[in-house]
Amino acid sequence: MSNNNDQKVQIVVADPSALGLFGLAMVCFVAASQKLAWTTGMSFVIPWAIFLGSIAQMMACIYDFKHNNLFGATVFGAYGLFWISMAAIWLIKMGAFGAVLANAVDVKQLGFAFIGYLIFSLFGTIAAMETNKVIFSIMCLINVLFIGLAIDSFGMGGHWAHTMAAWTELAISLLGFYGSGATFLNKWFGKAFLPVGKPFGIFK
Questions:
Q1: What was the pLDDT predicted at 12?
Q2: What is the 3-state secondary structure (H, E, C) of the chain?
Q3: Which residues have C-beta within 8 Å of that of residue 145, sequence separation ≥ 6?
Q4: pLDDT band at 3, cuts 50/70/90?
């Protein structure tokens, strides 16, 4: 005999975008400091890549899936996986997994990975036109970052490609901090405390 009085309980979760953007901002901020030679070495970049760049964005990904937010879930998930991959790559290059792996590194393979992420980011940039102008601007900068990183990995652009990637990563970080703060405060106060810009509304 079935029970017709079954109740469904909906678990409401908060918007995770502020956390995801903060994770992106933090890891880019620390990584850019190394690329710009303001700091040296990768040892203290790796924890931020794992815990902020990866785990924080993966948490945002999971909860955006619960929000039925395809854009946030896909983008945060993709970039969260990117940063855990980068942490593993740095560990391999530093010899953490042994000399065999460290000696077998081919940086051009990383260049192909950056091209793959550039292709994904271009699709994400188109979708971001229906979010807000802060997110759209971050996506545009991410495209520039991957172009610089790919050129640098293939050894084609000289030092300018590395420099372009470094300054672009810093710009992503600063805009990410603003986007995180704006999302947090706007949701908290229930009004436009900090402007993020309206969607372009071209495709809808």
A1: 77
A2: CCCCCCCCCCCCCCCCHHHHHHHHHHHHHHHHHHHCCCCCCCCCCHHHHHHHHHHHHHHHHHHHHHCCCHHHHHHHHHHHHHHHHHHHHHHHHCCCCCHHHHHCCCHHHHHHHHHHHHHHHHHHHHHHCCCCHHHHHHHHHHHHHHHHHHHHHCCCCCHHHHHHHHHHHHHHHHHHHHHHHHHHHHHHHCCCCCCCCCCCCCCC
A3: 165, 168, 169, 172
A4: low
